[in-house]
Amino acid sequence: MKSRDQEYRELFMAEALEYYDAMSRHLSELERNPQDTEALNELFRLMHNLKANARAMGFVDMGEVAHKMETLFGQIRGQERTFTGSLVPLTFGAVDTLGNMIRAVGAGQESADAHTLLDNLERLIQGEEPIQAATEQTTEEADADAGRKLELSDLVYIPVKKLDNLLNLVGELVIDRDRILTLAAEIGNAALQTTAQHLFRISDDLQYSVMDVRLVGAGVLLNKFPRVVRDVAAAENKQVELTLAGQDVQIDRNVLQLITDALLHIVRNGVSHGLEDAATRVAAGKPPVGQLRISALTERDDVLIQVQDDGRGINTEAVRQKAIRKGVVTADAAALLDEEGVWMLLFEAGFSMAEKITDISGRGVGLDVVKLAIDSLGGRLRVNSELGKGTTFTLVLPTSIAVKGALLVELDARAYAVPLLHTDTVLALHADEIFAVGGLLMTRVQEENVPLVPLRQLLYVEGDEPLPRATRADLPPDDTLHQVLVVSYNNRRLGLIVDRFLRQQSIVVKPLSKPLDTIDLFGGVTLLGSGQLCLVLDVPALTRLFLTKRP
Amino acid sequence: MADSSAAPGSRRAAPVAPEAVVQLIVFRLGDEDYGIRIEQVKEVTVTPEVVKMPKTPPFIKGIANLRGDIIAIVDLEERFQLRPAGRPVPDFSYTLAVEAADYTLGLMVREVPRPVTMPVSLIEPAPEFVQDSGQRDKYLEGIAKLPDSEGVIIVLDMAKLLTPSEIMRLPGRSEPPATKADEAPNAPTPPEKP
Amino acid sequence: MNKRILIVDDSFYMRTMLKNMLTDAGYDVVGEAANGQQALEMAVATTPDLITLDVILPDNTGLDVLKGIRQQQPDAKVVMCSAVGQETIVNEAIENGALAYIVKPFSEERVLEIVGGALQGDGPRA
């Protein structure tokens, strides 16, 4: 289990060790060349950062040493003094002391008293000489310095973007692997088949390993909630006891990221609408303190995150009536809904159970953001409630998702996503930059002729007949710029003419379900932030379609 | 504390005596009443925003996001060619989410469907006279004659309609639209996602 | 719609802490920049409602970055982050259009109070 404090401590440690290494390096540079402004500026900055971080962590002595060092380097920078004389050994000694303090934090030990060092640094700042004892090294200390081991941090910080890229590459690898496997079977060479089998296993392991790297404990998110619950409970004047469980359940960092707001909403909702105030609870024969439990657990390939309260439960009929009143559902349709169906109405846009909008749960959005977030992940939402006994919301989430970068293009007022993996470049072409060869429109892209085709034609012209032969006369005569997305697949470039480019964005691709999974032009579908559906184009299939239908 | 295992469980009570009584969800297609057994219907909802999907037959209205499920929306009037000429596709409609073995399909209907309970014995095997209605008869379970001259309900057998190849079949065509993968010069096999 | 905030600080630890405080309070942290160059680019790319800006950065001083941002977007709301003893820089920052400053180490209450105040259009404050 990793609490936020622990997370901060790890971040602090990793960064402090990095600072320490850089300080040592720059100090040596400054010793060689006291005029090295860059080294000086860096030392000043590193001391400043270490000071601020150490103080935030409550490491007073470390913060003080760094503060005085910062002041000293500030004085040197301001040409109030030079990097000479007794200042040099003392600063080296101070950086060593900082290193020891940082390591002591890492080992969970108390660091040695820094009183003498601080006094000496203060003397230097005041323009006095340090007292001798501190600057004289014993032979023992000198030996210890010379024999000091170099230490690198055990933690590596990897931007999630790099991991996403890695996962995408592995995805590509797996596609080619499957192709090789098929080819090996066709060729029938035993050695090739064995190698292909081996490749299969290795790339499988690789894919899991890469996905595994992105897994973090659910605690990373869950541990944020004690504070949230405390605040909401205080604002709502309720007594709430929060229990957390399953902080070590592993889940993809990106999944957690995407559900953060959703979970926040459910928890706030649980405190402000689910749980009753103490008086109401006592009147109902319940203990005055409401129980709220947030837990993570694994179920097959999914991770469940549950928010459970022992509050008033959902009044199904009230919800049904309100949904009708709010126009979320018609009276006829509502009459057909069973209990669970009615509960799901809570998550419809336009439904907000609170009659009085409180500051806590009424931030202008309702529980519908919860559904949007879960939908976009391909997850599910379950509600279980018993009147007077309490309510449980369960988010069923995939352990891992592949987030892909995509470019959104617009065609006939509809957005389509094109995975960045297959996009090459975007062009805005004047008509005179387009020429026609053999019934095909072409343009020059980096010394290469690239065929152009309206995406509209590829998507909407029915039948297997070749596309109509295109001539420049087809282009509108006016000055309009033609928006072209150049995609590439198998080193073959193709320019798709679209209406306009919308934006680049990360998407989670959901596979199309039956019976539409046979339409291979679409790699799947994604939900945009607005809840809108967006088809994901499959560039290999589009390229193949173009090749078979080219005039 | 409430029970933590939000078990999916059975969502609607099964008919008390399945041999004797049947519950249908009844809706209008063209000028006729059609019914589906209630256990085949997952839910009835106002049709969500439908996104047109290229390369699909015209009776596939597109795809829609139904509580996180991305489902195909089918216009049965068009599929069975029951829409009287000149009558437009309504702006506002209802969707019946019907469940097949491994997917959900949305059936778009113009009026709010209503539940009807009747003795099973009222459903008679389809007579010959509906044979001229395109391919609809292939998917019929039978025809229920309501007492007191309240008309008839044509009962559809969803299991027969809900195979993906039947759904995608164009009226009058024997094969669903072919995909292009076979003609590809260098088509990788899509991998199974772990 | 939550208010969107861009955090500029060269310490990952500081950014993380500030980000946690702000997101817990319901703000959207739309970007994090670790140096002046990134800050100027992201200020354009993410169109934040507010920027928290560290006074000491590796490639520029926070003051230069502040001037750059205000040149790009004269209406940009910027709150400086500084440590004790940097009053001169802070005063100069306020003269150059910064709305307020937060003193490190951050107290969550102060951060939220100052950020909230700056977003509501209060004048310079500390």
How would you characterize the overall build of this protein?
The complex is a heterotrimer of chains A (551), B (194) and C (126). Chain A is an alpha+beta fold. Chain A is built from 19 helices and 18 strands. In chain A, 47% of the residues lie in helices and 22% in strands. Chain A has a six-stranded mixed β-sheet. In chain A, strands 2-4-5-7-6 form a five-stranded mixed β-sheet. Chain A has a five-stranded mixed β-sheet with strand order 16-8-9-18-17. Chain B has helices at 76-79, 158-161, 164-168; strands at 21-29, 32-37, 41-46, 50-51, 60-66, 69-75, 94-99, 104-109, 114-119, 123-124, 140-145, 152-156. The longest helix of chain B has 5 residues, at 164-168. Chain B starts with 20 loop residues before the first strand and ends in a 26-residue tail after the last helix. Chain C has one domain: Rossmann fold. Chain C has a five-stranded parallel β-sheet with strand order 2-1-3-4-5, with helices on both faces. Chain C is an alpha/beta fold and 126 residues long. Chain C has helices at 12-24, 36-46, 62-72, 87-95, 108-119, and strands at 4-8, 28-33, 50-54, 78-83, 100-104. Chains A and B meet through helix 8, helix 9, strand 4, strand 5 and helix 15 of A and strand 3, strand 5, strand 6 and helix 3 of B.
